[in-house]
Amino acid sequence: MSLNKKIAVPLIILIVVALAGGGWYAWQHKGHDHEAEKAAQGKQLYTCSMHPFIIKDKPGTCPICGMELIKKIDGAAGGAQTPEQKQQAEMIGHVSLSPTQRVMANVATVEAKQQSLSKEINAVGIVQFDQSRQARVTAWIAGRIDKLNVDTVGAFVSRNKPVAEVYSPDLLATQQEYLLAIRSRDQLKNSPIPSISQNGDGLVASAKQRLMLFGVKESQIAELEKAGKPNIRLPIYTPLSGVVIEKMVQQGQYVNTGDPLFNIADLSTVWVEVEVYENEFPNIRIGQKVEIRSQSFPGKPFTGRVAFIYPFLDPKTRTVKARVEMPNPGMQLKPDMFVNAIIKVPLGSAIVVPITAVMDTGKRQVVWVESEPGMFEPRDVQVGQQTDDKIQVLSGLKPGDKVAVSGGYLIDSESQLKGGGGQDHSQHSGVKPEATGEPAPAGHKGHAAPDAAKPAPAKKPLNMDDMKM
């Protein structure tokens, strides 16, 4: 009996103590969680759209930029968003700048316009002879150059004036045969026998053909027939008028049939072979207008058109040659002269913005559009051809949109800072807890918080209006 009492008494005491402690704990925390949750749900907080780490419990202005605070809305995961939540989600990527900040960041905007754009392709070229206007004077018969009318390279020759005179025994004999055939024809034409009368015409035609094969012209044959005696020396003519670019014979020299005497080139029209890089030659078309500029004639452009595009690529320079035909008045452009070519390629009508307005991230192109005064939003665009200072926008913009052409990278940086989450910024921003509307952390009962023992000097809010430009 005594043993049961010894066990029951301590057990009863332990149960009483446990019940008393549980009751005290329940009394201390009665309704705490419910009230805290209710307070958290019912308390409306306000934040700055540009500085999301600024949080206050009542409306007002941002202590940094002076903008009106907006309601801070924490959407439940998986729940339907209210219109205010949707508006705040859409405003995450937006950046708002005050007039002072726009001046400090050097932000300028222009309107996107629908206009025609032309691209200029700059290339280098070399002046060449027009190969269709070159000729070579050769000896059509073996003989001796008795007289040379052209003594120097660069001399101008005409197709109506002989460049040389040659003596040839074969040519002399052929002329005599022609004259003899004419006399025979005159004697035999009155014969009553048709075969004899017609034979005389055949002899004349055969001798005339031999003279023409020796390079004798119709007019020279007519003069030979009129004179009735052969010419000792035969004049040699050029097939075209031009400039002597090569002279291969001297006076008194013996030549054989087919030996070259002169090379002639007509420089009234020249070729310019321009070299276009492989990423630009798809824009080149036959018939395009080309402007040629030379350092020898500054301020005086020449004009030609693309006549041919070579079907091969130079593996060393990675360029494609395009042939430009152009007139050469006064023969100012000399062969082998270096020139600069400007080819204007029309790109059609499209929305055009300055090239500085487009930010290329490598995977996409972004422009900052001013949707409202001082409010900028990012816009993905698809770009096309570009010139020196402008670029086509194929999609993503419409005419009249204001885009930032300077300060875009600063706006993008501000957007990334804003979108990086503002929950931890208040710990490192130097703003006191009172400014954010959050209560200061409390220490143990009867003791001050560690920071309260030695308060840090408060930083003054940044007032950009006081900054002088």
UniProtKB/TrEMBL annotation:
<feature type="transmembrane region" description="Helical">
    <location>
        <begin position="7"/>
        <end position="27"/>
    </location>
</feature>
<dbReference type="InterPro" id="IPR058649">
    <property type="entry name" value="CzcB_C"/>
</dbReference>
<feature type="compositionally biased region" description="Low complexity">
    <location>
        <begin position="439"/>
        <end position="461"/>
    </location>
</feature>
<keyword id="KW-0472">Membrane</keyword>
<keyword id="KW-0812">Transmembrane</keyword>
<dbReference type="Pfam" id="PF25954">
    <property type="entry name" value="Beta-barrel_RND_2"/>
</dbReference>
<feature type="domain" description="CusB-like three alpha-helical bundle">
    <location>
        <begin position="201"/>
        <end position="230"/>
    </location>
</feature>
<comment type="similarity">
    <text>Belongs to the membrane fusion protein (MFP) (TC 8.A.1) family.</text>
</comment>
<dbReference type="InterPro" id="IPR058791">
    <property type="entry name" value="3HB_CusB"/>
</dbReference>
<dbReference type="InterPro" id="IPR045800">
    <property type="entry name" value="HMBD"/>
</dbReference>
<protein>
    <submittedName>
        <fullName>Efflux RND transporter periplasmic adaptor subunit</fullName>
    </submittedName>
</protein>
<dbReference type="InterPro" id="IPR051909">
    <property type="entry name" value="MFP_Cation_Efflux"/>
</dbReference>
<dbReference type="Pfam" id="PF25975">
    <property type="entry name" value="CzcB_C"/>
</dbReference>
<feature type="domain" description="Heavy metal binding">
    <location>
        <begin position="46"/>
        <end position="72"/>
    </location>
</feature>
<dbReference type="InterPro" id="IPR058792">
    <property type="entry name" value="Beta-barrel_RND_2"/>
</dbReference>
<dbReference type="Pfam" id="PF19335">
    <property type="entry name" value="HMBD"/>
</dbReference>
<dbReference type="InterPro" id="IPR006143">
    <property type="entry name" value="RND_pump_MFP"/>
</dbReference>
<feature type="domain" description="CusB-like beta-barrel">
    <location>
        <begin position="269"/>
        <end position="342"/>
    </location>
</feature>
<feature type="region of interest" description="Disordered">
    <location>
        <begin position="414"/>
        <end position="469"/>
    </location>
</feature>
<feature type="domain" description="CusB-like barrel-sandwich hybrid">
    <location>
        <begin position="135"/>
        <end position="265"/>
    </location>
</feature>
<dbReference type="InterPro" id="IPR058790">
    <property type="entry name" value="BSH_CusB"/>
</dbReference>
<keyword id="KW-0813">Transport</keyword>
<feature type="domain" description="CzcB-like C-terminal circularly permuted SH3-like">
    <location>
        <begin position="351"/>
        <end position="411"/>
    </location>
</feature>
<dbReference type="Pfam" id="PF25919">
    <property type="entry name" value="BSH_CusB"/>
</dbReference>
<keyword id="KW-1133">Transmembrane helix</keyword>
<dbReference type="Pfam" id="PF25869">
    <property type="entry name" value="3HB_CusB"/>
</dbReference>
